[in-house]
Amino acid sequence: MILDIDVGNTFLKWRCSGEGPPTRGRLLTERLHDGMPESLPDQVQRVRVASVAGPVVAALITGYCQARWGLKPEFARSSHQAAGVINSYADPSRMGVDRWLAMLAGFNLGAGACCVVDCGSAITIDFVTADGRHDGGYIVPGLRLMAKSLLANTAEVVAEREIAHFDLAPGRDTASAVFHGVNFVFDAIQRQLIERLDRDGGEFRLLITGGDGELFQRLAGRGEYRPELVMDGLEWAL
């Protein structure tokens, strides 16, 4: 049984694969101090981890794996080259490992050029050419981070109510103006990306992941939503 773990700033997601269908789950990353999920299997032979949550969380995961299974988890790292993909960063360690793994999975699962969009705490967009070169990317705040930043740093902005549905209409109170404004930016991002992909003549296969990835795919009207793309990349990195 192999346990794959993807630790983001908001959620820790896990997947166990081996005999039979995979089992999976998630918990809030901040709850990791209370322990890992009890639903994890008793028999695990290998643990692979993608984490952007820092050394404290890495230590918690390591301690848990050693205590429960006597295993030392393997942490993926961004590198200059892996599984046919060449990193564009002069210092590959500066690239978030989640981006790197998603690109490895996207390139190898599609066997060619791909555009990988990860809609999590941050929205990242990366291009990998047909010969495996990372052709650069973009990083912008995610939906919740944009709203949180505005609400936290503008004293007069008060969230009178939560806007639960996606709406692009101009807001008629402060809360709706904030959240609809965030939606407006999110929609503009996908529109600009689709225009670029169309200009490129369909060269790049569009792969989408992350908590808001389904929404991005719905707005874009194309692309493949793969919620476990980062964990898929662990196979190629390790």
What does this structure look like?
The protein is an alpha/beta fold and 238 residues long. It contains six helices and twelve strands. The protein has helices at 55-69, 97-110, 143-153, 174-199, 213-220, 229-237, and strands at residues 2-7, 11-17, 23-28, 46-51, 74-75, 81-82, 85-86, 114-119, 122-128, 134-141, 205-209, 224-225. The chain has a five-stranded mixed beta sheet, sandwiched between helices. Strands 10-9-8-11-12 form a five-stranded mixed beta sheet, sandwiched between helices. The two termini are 15 Å apart. The model is unreliable at 158-164 (pLDDT under 50).
Key phrases:
238 residues; alpha/beta; five-stranded mixed β-sheet; 35% helix; transferase; metal ion binding
Short description:
Helices cover 35% and strands 25% of the residues. With 238 residues, the protein is of the alpha/beta class. The strands form three sheets. A five-stranded mixed β-sheet has the order 3-2-1-4-5, with helices on both faces. Strands 10-9-8-11-12 form a five-stranded mixed β-sheet, with helices on both faces.
